[in-house]
Write a structure and sequence with these properties.
With 274 residues, the protein is α+β, with helices and mostly antiparallel strands. It is built from nine helices and eleven strands. The longest helix is centred in the middle third of the chain and has 20 residues. The structure holds lauric acid. The site of lauric acid has 17 residues, from β6, β7, β8, α6 and β9. It comes from Tanacetum coccineum. This is Fatty-acid-binding protein 1.
């Protein structure tokens, strides 16, 4: 059995004491707060750990994949944005990060948003068990789990929440065009304008994004990318290339927040090794 934990060194905030209003109104903290989220690393052999699998002590935020995901909220430390431990009923939080982006327009806007990466509990359990449970610690160290994850059919959601910057849907559309366009080119060559347009056109002018809005980018079974704004589906596009390109922004080779990616990597490894 694989144990899937939330080994964050900062105590996650108990959901019970965070009101929805607080979550919705997470505000800017000063830039440069250096506290991060660190993840404990475990280098013991996979087999040893699997053999001796027991909860040695109650672990705040830990969970066993066989028992379902624990809904423990986690705060992105630099921004103060709080992410629920679980979304869509069964997707557990793998890690959180921060992205600063200058949005070009009439007036350039410095936009800061926090993001959380979630994976479906049973998908990730199967994925880790099938591919990694028998690897030695050294093999595991050399394995690129997030790379495999991006190419797999595991359901993953990236949740974006603005920290500051007054955003128009147009600037969001342009920002995605820029970032996702670069990734589509990287993985699929230059002939992907139509795919990019299909994705970005979902962010049409009818949608408003007041402060506290949340965009979910969800890779679902069959490589369908489903986009929601504040819980409302704005569209879905079936494309493995698009799913791969979106995830690459957050957990790929050149992620927006390398600490977040590192945390997610470590968390996936620790889900196998603990
Ligand atoms: C309502 C949450 C809005 C979050 C801001 C999203 C801005 C677009 C981001 C495009 C991808 C990127 O380059 O970071």
């Amino acid at each position: 059995m694989v144990s899937f934990r939330f080994p964050f060194s900062i105590p996650p905030l108990p959901t019970g004491i965070i009101s929805p209003a607080t979550i919705a109104c997470s505000v800017v903290l000063t830039a440069g707060i250096s506290a991060g989220i660190s993840i404990s690393q475990n280098s013991t052999s996979v087999q040893n750990t699997l053999n001796s699998f027991v909860y040695k002590k109650p672990f705040f935020g830990s969970l066993s994949l066989s028992e379902g995901v624990a809904d423990v909220a986690v705060k992105e430390e630099k921004s103060g944005v709080v992410f629920p431990g679980v979304v869509d009923g069964n997707k557990g939080l793998l890690g959180v990060g921060l992205r600063r982006k200058v949005l070009f327009g009439l007036k350039n806007i410095d936009c800061l948003y926090a993001f959380g990466v979630y994976a479906d509990d049973s998908d990730i359990k199967n994925f880790l068990n099938e591919k990694y449970a028998t690897l030695s610690a050294t093999e595991l160290k050399n394995a690129d789990i997030t790379q495999d994850l991006m190419e797999s059919d595991v359901s993953v959601t990236v949740r974006l929440q603005i920290v500051y910057g007054k955003l128009s849907i147009r600037s969001v559309r342009n920002a995605f065009e820029d970032s996702v366009g670069t990734r589509l080119k990287k993985f699929g060559g230059s002939d992907n304008k139509e795919l990019l347009q299909k994705f970005t056109s979902q962010f049409s002018d009818e949608y408003k994004i007041p402060s506290g809005s949340i965009i979910n980018l969800s890779k679902e079974k069959g490589y369908v990318l489903r986009t929601t704004i504040d819980g409302k589906e704005v569209g879905s596009v079936q494309s493995q290339l698009l799913c791969r390109s979106i995830l690459d922004l957050y957990i790929g080779d050149e992620p927006f927040d390398s600490k977040a990616k590192e945390d997610i990597d470590n968390k996936l490894v620790s889900a196998i090794t603990k």
